[in-house]
Specification:
This protein has ten helices and eleven strands. It has 293 residues and is α/β, with parallel strands linked by helices. It folds into two domains: 29-114, Rossmann fold (3-Layer(aba) Sandwich); 139-273, 3-Layer(aba) Sandwich (Rossmann fold).
Length: 293
């Protein structure tokens, strides 16, 4: 069993991006510019945006955060997004979710210029990804593909089972793995809350990707010997064994399942560290006009 070490890979990719930014600056170009919009004072959102700012600085990007109170109207927020769409200095931007209830997240996503949508949530980017055109791929699926590439995990002809059908993880990763080419050519099955006898399906998986948000859902009897297991879930559970009083658990019962695997992601430290790296990769692509020319 080998751990798929997301932190190690994330650090390596960040170094590669930083080197490329140095080359851009050395040849007289401007560093990529990433903007984040943060509405309100949600603790988790503050933390995520802080991580994104720090990572941007590490690789030499220009980055800034536009902060608005949670009383901002939907109309005013859409006007701010429109300003950034038109700002030639900004290569990519994100609007940190969740948003206050009076603002439609879908309207906000669709208001972002697809050329600057480095989260990869706009329907244009999702559509381009589905038909195999260059696009900004959303963070978690991109992170999983990066892990497979770096660990040279063979996907062609394998049976991949994806637990979960969300628009952010389940559907896009199923689509990417089924496409022609490197890191694709899988036979993919998607399971969800209405699927019958999930264990009988997961036991046939060469590659099992779990993103359902139920701590410890996948147990040893659901996994076949030698499978590659990617655990996207992350749930905080009370614990008297940690200083914080909480422990992070994935959707996979790690201690039970790991001995059966050829590769498995830890939680934390698996897919998570690569999600911010994906944002950096997309912003670099945006600054180079790689996706839309």
């Amino acid at each position: 069993m080998e751990l798929l070490d997301g932190k190690k890979i994330a650090d390596k990719v960040k170094q590669e991006i930083a080197q490329e930014v140095e080359q851009i600056k050395a040849s007289g170009g401007k560093p990529p510019n990433l903007v984040a919009i943060l509405v309100g004072h949600d603790g988790a959102s503050e933390t995520y945006v802080g991580h994104k700012e720090k990572a941007s600085a590490q690789v030499g990007f220009n980055s800034s955060v536009l902060r608005f109170e949670d009383t901002i109207t939907e109309e005013d927020l859409l006007a701010e997004i429109n300003k950034i769409n038109k700002d030639p200095e900004v290569d990519g931007f994100i609007v940190q979710m969740p948003l206050p209830k009076h603002i439609s997240e879908q309207k906000v996503i669709e208001a972002i210029d697809p050329k600057k949508d480095v989260d990869g949530f706009h329907p244009v980017n999702v559509g381009r990804m589905v038909i195999g055109l260059p696009s900004y791929v959303s963070a978690t699926p991109d992170g999983i593909i990066e892990l497979f590439k770096r660990y040279n995990i063979q996907t062609a002809g394998k049976h991949c089972v994806v637990l979960g059908r969300s628009n952010i993880v389940g559907r896009p990763i199923a689509n990417l793995l089924s496409q022609k080419g490197p890191m694709g050519d899988c036979t993919v099955t998607i399971c969800h809350s209405r699927s019958k006898d999930i264990p009988s399906i997961t036991r046939t998986a060469d590659i099992l990707i779990v993103a359902i948000g139920k701590a410890g859902f996948v147990t040893a009897d659901m996994v076949k010997e030698g499978a590659v297991v990617v655990d996207v879930g992350i749930t905080r559970i009370k614990s008297d064994k940690t200083k914080s009083g909480w422990k992070l658990h994935g959707d996979v019962n790690f201690d039970e399942v790991a001995p059966k695997c050829s590769y498995i992601t830890p939680v934390p430290g698996g897919v998570g560290p690569l999600t911010i790296v994906s944002l950096l990769k997309n912003t670099l692509k945006a600054s180079k006009r790689e996706v839309y020319g």
